[in-house]
């Protein structure tokens, strides 16, 4: 079926003989890697332990790429020269453990694709805000006329973009899972929006392991590169005090004035990294809330480092529309606003959402708990939330945490039911906020599916 070179398993060089590339996982990352791998001369085999979604299966068939589903054929997989592991597959998975024991390189899609482009990369990671910052950075650069693509953990996979486009710049959203699989990949400009506990189930419930994963984004940076970071974030500051990076540090803060970086002064976004200071009143930003001010700071810093003119930056900040499923206004029905924040899959994201609510709130929360500690939300819930609608299979922790501060807690098992219950519990002037603080895989395909079902349910009221 394929030509395999089994004598060179420990050395993966895109410049040498290609050999066999095995792709574990037939989703966005996997299919993108398969397309790029075939284009670059590898024998490619895609293996998925589950059924491959039809749209991805059709792409593999179109490109005449060999694949299997609902199984892993180990005697074939273990002949690989290099394996790309999709980010959803944990390192603890038996197949991955065996590959590592056999000293077969297991890398991420980001690592694989990065070796086939000379484009300037802006890499963006963080527990929250990375999608909005990625979209906004791309919006600014594209508006300024740069030849720029966007992908990674959002939109098309990085690998597919490298295979099919010829961008001179990339803005990539990078999850900790994607960063775990890098060895040589580098971003000229790296952004860490913030670090708060998330995905601890994948990191042995050790926050320090998760922090270290995020900081892999600066692992290969040089003196010519930049690390933009939230100077108000405790986890980031602690890491920087005890670790080093070669990159130039570019901080942003809404709490203190900085000699170098971005900060707030007199309700004005102020940036001092070039010879001329960039300023813009907060009232001019379309994105509202403290967290979005920080996202705007990070995106503006990146744009300035890439020599984008101030007028392009200002105009882009004034007309940017924001991310779907992140504090997205859906509708106002009988005086009640419905807000879709399905992308809030951890406690800190929901903290931001509740902080932004100016009206009495009916809060839809719940899903797959990733080791959540809800206690940070108690003051906001006590102040703003009049009723909780649980949207998950196991809601015990939510009921235990908030039962003493919220009188009404109702359990539901679907978006349509949750929306109907929330409407009954709300009155004119209230807000119904879907901000789950949890993953979605108990009742939905992903957070996008959850958000879409919520929006459809609202529109059907």
From TrEMBL:
Entry's EC annotation: 6.3.2.9
Biological role stated in the UniProt entry: Cell wall formation. Catalyzes the addition of glutamate to the nucleotide precursor UDP-N-acetylmuramoyl-L-alanine (UMA).
Taxonomic placement: Bacteria, Pseudomonadati, Bacteroidota, Flavobacteriia, Flavobacteriales
Catalytic activity line of the entry: UDP-N-acetyl-alpha-D-muramoyl-L-alanine + D-glutamate + ATP = UDP-N-acetyl-alpha-D-muramoyl-L-alanyl-D-glutamate + ADP + phosphate + H(+)
Domain Mur ligase central positions: 124-303
Location in or out of the cell: Cytoplasm
Binding site for ATP: 126-132
Enzyme class label: ligase
GO MF terms, alphabetically ordered: ATP binding; UDP-N-acetylmuramoylalanine-D-glutamate ligase activity
Entry GO terms, CC: cytoplasm
Domain Mur ligase C-terminal: 325-438
Domain of life: Bacteria
Pfam families recorded: Mur_ligase_C (PF02875), Mur_ligase_M (PF08245), MurD_N (PF21377)
GO biological process: cell division; cell wall organization; peptidoglycan biosynthetic process; regulation of cell shape
Family: Belongs to the MurCDEF family.
Protein known as: UDP-N-acetylmuramoylalanine--D-glutamate ligase
Keywords: ATP-binding, Cell cycle, Cell division, Cell shape, Cell wall biogenesis/degradation, Cytoplasm, Ligase, Nucleotide-binding, Peptidoglycan synthesis
Pathway, per record: Cell wall biogenesis; peptidoglycan biosynthesis
